[in-house]
Batch of 2 targets.
Target 1
Amino acid sequence: MKVIYPGSFDPLTYGHIDIIERCSEQFELITVAVLINNAKVGLFTTQERLDLIRETTKHLKNVRVDSFRGLLIDYAKKIDTNIIIKGLRAVSDFEYEMQMALANKKLYPKLETFFMVSNMKYSFLSSSIVKEVSILGGDVSGFVPKVVEDSLKVKIKGGL
Ligand code: ADP
């Protein structure tokens, strides 16, 4: 089975990596897909996010890293993959994810959304928390890999 793991990944955290590694054991091919959102300026550019994910997942031979614009269902059709992976951290994720899964199903009935329960160690972790802690000068080494931590430092030193 081939799956897509979509998200903003601004930046990649240990929570994302945990999901990617677990998927890598269960599925034949995982496409980590960075959503290009023109309406929202992120901290990292799309290219930077892709580079960080590639660098961090290079030990996983069945992981591919790509970006997409527009509707996820159109991207899913384009790469001929109809399973979407979503990570669930807390009940707060559930409402939105359920709505998205049902909307996507309505738009493209062949699409299935699989939910993976977050690793308990990382259930508090989000890219926003990482950015906030980092901007305020906190230690994020327990939240993100070293390459991401270093990139955050460079961004923040450069005035974002
Ligand atoms: P965020 O900005 O909220 O960290 P993204 O949009 O980059 O998240 O998330 C992409 C996917 O990864 C979503 O399915 C999200 O639920 C999941 N995810 C994010 N953080 C974690 C985590 N700590 N554990 C498990 N799944 C996560």
Note: The beta strands are 2-7, 29-36, 63-69, 83-88, 112-117.
Target 2
Amino acid sequence: MLALAPRFAAAEEQIARSTRGMPQPRIRDISVIECEPDGVRLTVVKITTDQDGLHGYGCATFTQRADLVRPAVEKYLKPFLLGRTTDRIEDIWQSCYDSSYWRNGPVLNNAISGIDEALWDIKGRQAGMPVYQLAGGKCREAVDTYAHASGSDFEEVVDNARQYMAQGFRNVRVQVGIPGMAGYGSSHQETNSFKPLHNSPLYEPEYDFRRSLKLLDICRRELGDEVQLLHDMHERFTPNEAVQFCKQAEQYHMFFLEDPLSPEDLGYFRQIRENCATPIAMGELFNSPHEWQPLIEEQLIDYIRVHLSQAGGFSPSRKIAILAEQFGVRTAWHGPGDLSPVGHMANVTLDIVSYNFGIQEYTPFNERTQAIFHGCPVMKDGYLWVNENPGWGIEIDEKEAAKAPFIPSPLNGGWGEIRRLDGTVIKQ
Ligand code: GCO
Ligand code: MG
């Protein structure tokens, strides 16, 4: 245990005994577990306490800058937190948030998320309850999800969507490749007809615009009226194109269109609203309250889609859910492959306790992932089920994790660039 300055010792002693006079656990160690079992770098923070076998895990995955999260945890948060009691989650969150003075960036928010979620895990294990019980208990049995259907041509996407529907999914996200271009969310056929002024992957928004609209038209006709269709625009269009796209997509009765605009263009959400009633989801790139607050309070979006660890973990995201409920905005937390199963369980936990839950993005866990993370959320008939064991209900096999280290890559997991025909870099 860390030696405490004498003037703090009395207060610390009181804190340590705050619950029914029982000694509260203290943070004995903080470590970082890294692995890449399915092609993306995952980072999890482990907090070990001074009480026998009591520990917790939190997701801190920021795959494009994974190597920077470890030192943020080990060099800054660990010395700051060693020796503290684990019971004051909000107090620790606020202390960590403020201790860098400059805040709301993705690396530091992920590091704080690792700590925050590990503390919730510990509290659940202490109580002998899953975290959802600590957050008020279930308001639904399981969590409705959407699957990702994609393909390099329309037929492939439709086939893929049908496969998911046959498995019981009622909601399907559809993405089609653009021949010769690096669109988002699908493979594509190569073609030599373009003559870009560079050698990077190519993308032009107008091609995407026409092809994606056509895809929505085909999917609605081929898949019928009952399936809920979703589509991720991935901040690829100019603001005006985005307004036009949302307006034209209105006829297909989407569940939602996602990320029509980039966080830099938030002011244009009002124009989308003024022009159509297509439901809009936004937020996976958000790190700061200054991004989500105005969109929620001005009711400019229908679904808030924050990536929990990018916002700083379970604690701040729960506040986002509650804020959104007051304004009739529903939740659709980001659930991609670059989220550890601990992060997915935090999503499902919030889904199950929030009245204003909308939908959950679903990414399957492969065998290697499940060999490392025991107790992942279970998928059945399109629904995800929360683990009923204490805390997040997940145990990590660190030996298995060590067998799946980060795969060396020239950019350390970072993304390369995509350019327009004339060489302009686009947001991807
Ligand atoms: C989604 C997302 C992801 C992101 C990815 C970035 O809606 O699932 O857009 O696919 O692109 O998480 O690393
Ligand atoms: Mg997305």
Note: The longest helix spans residues 106-127.
